[in-house]
Model the fold of this input.
Amino acid sequence: MDVSFNICHFLCIGCLHDFKSPMVSTSFGLGMDRDSNNWGKFLYSLFMLYILLFIYYKSKSNIHLCQLFFLFPLPFLEFFVIGHDCAHKSFSKNKLLEDIVGTLAFLPLIYPYEPWRFKHDRHHAKTNMLSEDTAWHPIQEEKFETSPFFRNAIIFGYGPFRPWMSIAHWLIWHFDVNKFRSNEIQRVKISLFCVFAFMAIGWPLIIYKTGIMGWIKFWLMPWLGYHFWMSTFTMVHHTAPHIPFKSSNEWNAAQAQLNGTVHCDYPRWIEILCHDISVHIPHHISSRIPSYNLRAAHMSIQENWRPYLNEATWNWRLMKTIMTVCHVYNKEQNYIAFDELAPEESSPITFLKRVMPDYA
Done:
């Protein structure tokens, strides 16, 4: 029997009284072909990883290696999407299998699966809620003023190093057991054990076979490249000058899910290699829509709710705005740039404004 998720029902529950468009009547479910679709996606990811690994191994030119630094990590992102589907129970009907596949898919990324799942569920439950959302929330001014060291670190982090800030998110949110509820800790510890076991066994094996430079080439560089893509996709999903973060007493769940995230079109080859990770709005409306149905779900939402959607095409102006403007929370303006609050310390931001392209 087909299990489906009706977008219309979700929006009714959300109480979006201002929306007068027809209700979305299309359902995008997890039908009988779910397992075959997802296992096909898994095998495709393995195949792409093998092909790019072979090219990467054979590459001698430094120029080729620089190109592969951005290309080779894309299969890593494919495995992240597979683990992501497992965490949202949209990969298989077998929940134990989902946990196993999700854990294995995350291991090369050194992501502990269960801690990530718990914090990601909170992100979905509290999307764009100030202080409660766990993804890409603006810096609060009182924290920005806490110390010169933090201020300088966050200026670099939300400025030139923003395409790698998912590394800080990975480290801060997923390894401290004190950040989890008591009923979550056992699963958290199992995931942490798996990650540390992978590091203890996998890293020495890579070094034994290829040397320390092989570890840098075949694990560290792809891992950094993965975080470049991960940070880029997610910051675009959740950061725009006109999209507000709101305090809990002003926050509305359905408005945050429909109107608080961004759909961004990338070159099609990137979207294919990343299992449509860029198609984000339907995922926030119903997180159990599998990745292979996201594009069709988005088309249906466009037909009925397009005036309320945030849609963009990736370009340099978009990135420049995010990296040079969207910094500190302000209730009236949504964001204030670092160089407005601390111009003497914001040379990294003025540098980005000067050197980043400004064309759409």
